[in-house]
Amino acid sequence: MLSDEQNRRLTQVGAGTPMGELLRRYWMPIAAVAELDDKATKPVRLLGEDLVLYRDQSGTYGLLDRHCAHRRADLSYGWVEDCGLRCHYHGWVWDHTGKCLQQPFEEVANPEARFKERVRIKAYPVEAKAGLLWAYLGPPPVPLVATWEPFTWRNGFVQIVFSEVPCNWFQCQENSIDPVHFEWLHSHWTRVLQGDGGPKPPTHLKIGFEEFEYGFVYRRVLEGQSESDELWTVGRTCLWPNCLFTGGHFEWRVPIDDENMLSVGWFFDRVPNEMEPFTQDRIPYWYSPISEARTGRWITTHVMNQDFVAWVGQGALSDRTQEHLCESDRGIILMRKRMLEQAELVARGGEPKAVIRDPAQNACVRLPIIGRQYFVGGYSRADSDKRRGRTPGLVQRRDFPFLTGQPDEIRQAFRRAMGLDAEVPGDVRSPG
Ligand code: FES
Ligand SMILES: [Fe+2]
Asked: Nearest 5°: phi and psi at 273?
């Protein structure tokens, strides 16, 4: 059980708060690269700050204060030019460093004043990697955007899915180190929802947690498995500071503000050997709804939707003074402790864990990956079907089990990539 003060420290994300300052030491994914092909500006709220993301006509990305430094108009209604973003109100132009490039009327009326040289707007760096746009809101020196190992893989169909979830980011990240929930929130609940009379899902016999350079590994032994299975020997990753990595996908819990979180999923489906070589010109993205339009109730049909239901159910900001933690929560206790310590370290001017600055180290940052060989080398269709079921997550999927509302064109592109012709219903879901 935590005190009110500890709960606040763990959850508040504004500038100047302990966790807000810790989180500002890391790049955050905020949009898909392809999103700015569709529209050149995007309003973004990140870590409690209102911003506008854009790509100008020379291809430079910028992330600026949402409000123009002249008289505060909303720059997400501005338009991009060769260099920079022009405010729609009086035409001032800002560049990605926060410099004012033009003030049309001032340059006519009072050119000697050079007023534009004396005003600036808040600006943050943006980088593209793995089909995502990343933002860094912290102090210099700016670290590198991590090249996680799956970003270097080939022959995969990648898709990016966003959902806005109305609760604090940290209760979502606690789920990244909670192996037991899978059995109940996903396996059992799905059976109940579907009225499925099939065999009961395997129960957890043993769980283990351990810290490493980039976060924590959690391990499990399920009924029918042993400590020689990869769910125990390799485990899955609670990736520091705000991500779950299962091997085939990442789920970032990006804080919008204290009571809202942007879920950013990056999913890799290895195409069968028969479909190689496979490349993507553009990594597709989509937004997944979280509630039913008709009833306003949360959607429960897909794996991550079920997670969202649990998180929002804890309240916009879970009251940790009222909990009763136990053995299944050992990983959560470990993570909370490390978060608070790392926030204190940053407050004292120290460098927190998992900040990557060395380009050689960042060529490919390896993580624990169950079935790495499968993701790298792939299987043929027939071989994949034989392996179905033994180690969850290592199958060629036929549909998208994680989030609801996948657009038809993305589903079609996925099916073409995987070489799926006739519809084959059903799939094996992978523990998160
Ligand atoms: S408010 Fe932006 S130019 Fe005046
Ligand atoms: Fe889950």
From this structure: -55, -35
Helix (H) or strand (E) holding 190: helix 189-194
Rounded to the nearest angstrom, the distance between the alpha carbon of 53 and the centre of ligand 2 is: 30
Name the closest-CA residue to atom 3, ligand 1.
90
Residue 38: strand, helix, or coil:
helix
Cα-trace Rg, the chain: 23
* pLDDT tens-digit series, residues 50-87: 999 999 999 999 999 999 999 999 999 999 999 999 99
- Please check whether residue 232 is in contact with residue 224, taking contact to mean a CB–CB distance below 8 angstroms: no
Residue nearest to atom 4 of ligand 1 (CA): 90
CA 244 to ligand 2 centroid distance, Å:
10
Residues with CB in 5 Å of ion ligand 2: 307, 432
Residue percentage of the chain with pLDDT more than 70: 95
Q: Residue 243 in contact with residue 251, Cβ under 8 Å?
A: yes
What are 410's two structure tokens?
Answer: 């993305």
Residue 141, class by beta-carbon neighbours within 10 Å (0-12 exposed, 13-18 middle, 19+ buried)? exposed
CA of 75 to the centre of ligand 1 (A): 9
CB 305 within 8 A of CB 299: yes
Closest ligand 1 atom number to CA of residue 71: 1
231: its two tokens: 């769910």
